[in-house]
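dumping the sequnces here before i forget
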Amino acid sequence: MRDEQKGWKDIPIAGVCWKPATEYHTGDWRTFKPVRDQAKCTKCLLCPMICPDTAIKWNKATEDIEFDYNFCKGCGICAHECPVDAIKMVREGA
Amino acid sequence: MKAGQQETRAMNGDEAVAYAVKQSDVDVVAAYPITPQTIIVERFSEYVADGKVKTEFVCTESEHSALSACVAASATGARTFTASASAGLALMHEILYVTSGCRAPVVMAIANRALSAPINIHCDHSDSMAERDSSWVQIYVENSQEAYDSIIQAFRIAEHPDLLLPVMVCLDAFFLSHTLENVKVLPDEAVREFVGNRQLPLITNHNGEKVPFKLDPDNPITMGPLDLFDYYFEHKRQQEEAMQKAAQIITETHNAYSQLTGRRYGNGLVDSYRLEDAEIATVCVGSTAGTTKTVVDQLRAKGVKAGLLRLRNFRPLPVRDIKEALENISAIAVMDRSNSFGGYGGPIFHELRHVLYDTSSHPYVVDYIYGLGGRDMPQNIIKGIYKDLMEIVETKSVKEYVQFAGVR
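..and the predicted 3d for all of it:
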């Protein structure tokens, strides 16, 4: 976080956020990460919708799903809900 | 507006508060009844039922919920009021910090009442003194007239764009809340004009744009989110800065109001009584100041150079004014209507003595805990305190620094 050193005179009052939530990387403490099997994935787009954060996105250019691990906390909802079992939860560092 | 246009009405302290709220064009009142604050909410609910105000009145299931509703309402830019006392205020404790942390300028009347147990509905200051660190401005009033006047001032103080902190107006249970008094009231238009519309400062949102400081679907902002070791300290530092500006805002508001009504309460922060040439003095908050003024007059008639300093504001603590008022006094007795169990005297004593530590004159400062649970504070006890002070001056020594006045 680039501007983490801002002083009290330079930030809005009442804890009002002065940058979007997407600039706060919050995915550095998961134990398991979701890994997709591209061969099985039907691109049904269920997982981007059910992800409680913004960790799964639809990339218009590549017409494919993208995982953004900067925001993924490893909750595993995507793996649990995937209708074709294309997502596996893999232990970090394993 | 001329002072002559004011009307005199017979009201108790609670009714005076409700009347001031009625005139202050309040958008939302959320409250839960508790003796001795009940009349405030009762009267106000009648104004709502009779269509005399356009206020959204929310009956909640507890004080915790009442203040939570007030924080939410205030965050949308609404002018917001609530009232409580004793156990009710204690139940609000968590949300008091949320209110000030969200910089929600809620105004709350407190009818100061003792805390249980044993259960007691009468006056002492244990409830509000326990909340002195919650970043709320605290005004303690001497009579019902001042309760009326202070509520009107409180909205303008709290909502000042340089402050944006909540304000507590504290009035003594029963001595003020339930005692009929002649109260001069302003016409509705004069109050509405004085209080004005709530001004919303611009704030930087998450896209770096300046938007009004309120929750608004068209200009969304996020208020009071998770704030860990990286920024929490900075936000608390901002609150302290606002508190330090409060003294000037309170004084300016008090001066503007005085021009309207002709009524003054010292300089708005402290109210000195016959202190100019005083040798001994007492310090207190609330209605005891009225009785003490009578005692001071009696002592003065006998040639005793006695005086009184009433703190109108306890938060922010008017440090400079206290020093100026008391540095030439030889012996000072603080009268605390609450105790800090296991501490060295009551809360006002702690701070008074602390402030005076730096003065070159080093006056004697002693403490009297009095009036707990509504125990009366008659003239003879106050006279006894001044007598003790005379002895301290004469003997240049203090027998006991902390005593209990009026306990058997």
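The longest helix of chain A spans residues 46-50.
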